[in-house]
Design a protein that fits this description.
With about 200 residues, this protein is mainly α. About 70% of the residues lie in helices and about 0% in strands. The longest helix is centred in the first third of the chain and has 19 residues, at about 35-50.
């Protein structure tokens, strides 16, 4: 509860008011109710975003354990690069790797079940992510593009199958012509990008 809400329920003296306003400023970066609510809403949206992807959930898991990337990678018995790629939703562990990760980190059953739930959703998510590697988008960000083979291997196998099917019907030979295909894509928003991924996903049902 922010100071503004407390003040309405329980009138406070000037000294208490200064303390509560200082606390709100320190915690939320704002002392007015509107600013605090915006901060809280942004925080909740970011939390929900992280919990909706496998990589985001692994990031939250590491944060809850208070571990650095090298520390948790050591416990999980993977390299730091592999962990960073998983956590960044750049690559996806396979089923065997996910089982070892759960065992090595001593995860509770509920946490393991959440990881499995998110893992089963990753084929579609990896399809959404590949659109972010459009050459024109990477160039605008000043980022060097990966070669097509490396980028293709980061896709979930099921996403590879569906994208290859979609691309073949449009004259593209994947993975060799992956970037040629990506160059043809233009999106105005994340919603457009997800709509494209759904079209690709649903074309081979």
């Amino acid at each position: 509860m922010s100071f503004e809400e407390k003040k309405r329920k329980n009138p406070v003296n000037k000294s208490d008011q200064d303390i509560w306003e200082a606390l709100d400023q320190a915690v939320f970066g704002a002392s007015d109710e509107g600013g605090i609510r915006k901060k809280l809403n942004r925080g909740m949206q970011e939390w929900e975003r992280l919990e909706s992807s496998l990589g985001g959930f692994l990031f939250l898991l590491r944060e809850r354990k208070g571990l650095t990337v090298p520390e948790i990678a050591s416990k999980a018995k993977v390299t730091e690069t592999v962990w960073e790629m998983w956590e960044g939703d750049v690559a996806v562990p396979n089923g065997a790797e996910l089982g070892k990760l759960s065992k090595n980190l001593g995860l509770y059953q509920a946490t393991t079940e959440k990881l499995l739930e998110l893992w089963h959703r990753t084929p579609f998510q990896s399809l959404c992510r590949v659109a972010q590697f459009r050459p024109q988008l990477l160039a605008a960000r000043g980022v060097a593009a990966l070669d097509a083979k490396s980028q293709w291997e980061l896709l979930h196998p099921e996403a590879q199958d569906r994208l290859a099917f979609w691309g073949e019907k449009r004259g593209f030979d994947l993975p060799e012509q992956l970037f040629e295909l990506l160059k043809t894509l233009e999106f105005e928003s994340d919603e457009d990008q997800q709509a494209w991924a759904r079209d690709v996903w649903n074309e081979r049902s």
